[in-house]
From TrEMBL:
It comes from the Bacteria. This is NIPSNAP family protein. Residues 8-100 form the NIPSNAP domain. It comes from Agromyces soli. Pfam families: NIPSNAP.
């Protein structure tokens, strides 16, 4: 079963450029380690301190293999260093969801 991780960030609006660098690094790493990144969604209108990220792995086990690299893999450490050095992320919350896609609907032929 596909698992999608939704990360809700509170960011420092003064550090949006650093957050974008952080996001670009993680989009690449997710893709290189078996996931599909659906993108980061940055403030445009309304609250300027909220951002979201969504990415999927084919299973919870695949996600856990990816997570095992945190704090160990030099590329993962470097990506987190962008966040830590800039202070661009003030807080984040991770939620795991199961997607229901149009291709899952009865009668879908595509």
């Amino acid at each position: 079963m596909v698992i999608t991780c939704v990360v809700d960030y509170t960011i420092d609006p003064a550090e949006t450029e650093a957050f974008e660098q952080f996001a670009q690094a993680w989009m690449r790493l997710v893709a290189e380690h078996g996931g599909i990144h659906h993108g980061y969604f940055l403030p445009a209108e309304g609250a300027s301190d909220r951002a979201l990220a969504l990415f999927s792995f084919p299973s919870l086990a695949a996600y856990e293999q990816y997570r095992a690299r945190f704090g160990v893999d030099p590329e993962f450490i470097a990506a987190d260093r962008i966040r830590d050095a800039s202070g661009c992320v003030l807080r984040y919350e991770r939620t795991f969801m199961r997607p229901l896609l149009p291709t899952d609907l009865p009668g879908h032929s595509g």
